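DM from R.C. (forwarded with permission)

"hey, sorry to bug you on a friday — could you get me a structure for this? deadline for the figure draft is monday and I only need the backbone to look sensible"
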Amino acid sequence: MPTQGWNGRIMFSTVGGGAGSIGDTTSLLNRGFAMASTDTGHEGQTMEFMSQPEATIDYAYRGVHLATLFSKAVVKQYYGKPIKYSYLNGCSNGGRAALMEAIRFPNDYDGIIAGAPAFEFAEFASWMIGGARQQERSPLTRKEMSVLDDNSRRACDSLDGVKDGVINDPRLCTEERLELDKLVCTSGQTSSCLTAGQVDTARYMYADQFDATGKMVSPGVLPGAEAAGDWEFWMLKHQLLGSESLIGGMADTLALLMRHEPEFDITKFDPNNDRTQLVPAMAVTDVQTANLTDFAANGGKLIMYQGWNDYPLRPQRAINYLEEAEEQHGGAAKTAEFFRLFMVPGMVHCAAGPGAWVADYVDPLVIWRENGEAPDRIEAKTGMKQFSLDRSQQPAASDEDFTRPLCAYPALARYNGNGDPNRSENFICR
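My reply, with the result:
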């Protein structure tokens, strides 16, 4: 809590992954915010806490709500005056927790920033298990990920009329454009190519997944930024997980969650066709609805942001959630009165990537909630372009003068044809 100059606001930080640690409680102190966070009641990043039903409920939603009530009481007691506005910010699991607040406790917060929400554990766990099996058969390494990155950029970077190393709308970067079969090594070729099996692994990652009825059950990873670190972090084995990969370890987590189902066998689990088995066990953690009526009625404002090149929480899911909300709330215009989605070109999961992804969502949210000025455009700049599990490969943060507007979806940033294409002021949202 700021010892002087408190602005009457509180910002609560929800935590990503398996929680188990305290989130940001310092970054906004110099801007006058009191700040709070919670580890949701357990310590450490392993998922073993999910063997305890009460701990799982705390993780799912109760921990953030109770910590919110406690934090508000402490702040009011300390300053001797009421809180004017309460805000919440989180990404990944933190984005999921943010939505759970808006749905279950709509009066807790006046404004919420939800980044790349982990909407459905049943969906991303199943998708990752399928990907881990394919990666085990024909593994991609860091080298092949760079080949895929180069290929995506070569095929699709200039589709928006600006060649800047960023695919502005990767939905246009179709499998036909990627021509993955042309990446297969020819006789005697040993570099800048993939084996046929590795192409199959890449194709699995890019492709939408369907069940036996033809229903799409998981969207694929959109092309671009394959070498920025996200693919590597989730797909490659590393010591932090006992020499397992994050996608490879998902089977153990799922088996833990399904431990009360005696007939469940993770080795026989079909990632595309057996998902209905998971629904009861995942009900407490998953975002079950896009009905935000009570949150909106309380004057709440929601900003969601999502990287177009997010590997674990693929961006189509955020777009689908917005579309579901629009169905619940009378269309796009009505929904935009309280909920706006900002898609971030060239950003991977929550942060990093070749695009302009460093943005302040706090001021736009505050201005929207307190002054009624809804954000159509948020300015962003480049930051860390890539990261690596190999610390010797970790590049320094970029100091490149590259800026872009982030536009309220479905608008996208378009170059106006004049001036420096690396500068935001030469782009419009449409």
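R.C.: lifesaver. Residues 21 and 284 are 21 Å apart (CA to CA).
me: no worries. The longest strand covers residues 85-91.
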